[in-house]
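User: Hi! I have a protein structure encoded as tokens and I'd like to know what sequence might fold into it. I'm fairly new to this, so please keep things simple.
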């Protein structure tokens, strides 16, 4: 076998001589090139959107965490203050503080669940029932 007849040495495959490329194939190649360019542009845009969303997603997550923790702390704090005032007013120390602190804890958990969307708002149910 001669060196120029070996595959991979730059030898032309059979049927690919100096023949002219059919017009249908030229049109298909042009459409394929346009499709590849369009897909690469779309992929670049999608990657940019994902990068932008990941940056804003962490800030939104931090804001959500601060909101939920403040809802919980507010419920407990209000319960403690109301219990302390109740104890001072009726001289039932420490029972008012204990009871209202527990009620504040429950209210704080319920507020967090409502804010997170895990528990429906009672007002929303009544509005749905009216329609």
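Assistant: Happy to help. Inverse folding works backwards from shape to sequence: for each of the 131 positions I chose a residue that suits the local structure. Here it is:
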């Amino acid at each position: 076998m001669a060196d120029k007849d070996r595959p991979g040495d730059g030898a032309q495959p059979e049927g690919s001589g100096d023949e002219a490329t059919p017009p249908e194939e030229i049109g298909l190649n042009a459409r394929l090139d346009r499709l590849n360019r369009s897909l690469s542009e779309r992929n670049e845009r999608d990657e940019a959107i994902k990068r932008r969303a990941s940056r804003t997603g962490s800030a939104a997550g931090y804001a959500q965490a601060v909101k939920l923790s403040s809802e919980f702390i507010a419920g407990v704090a209000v319960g403690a203050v109301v219990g302390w005032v109740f104890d001072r007013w009726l001289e039932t120390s420490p029972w008012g503080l204990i009871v209202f602190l527990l009620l504040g804890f429950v209210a704080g958990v319920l507020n967090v669940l409502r804010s997170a969307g895990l528990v429906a708002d009672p007002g929303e149910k009544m509005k749905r029932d009216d329609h």
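A useful reference point when you look it over: Residues 20-130 form one domain. Feel free to ask if any position seems puzzling.
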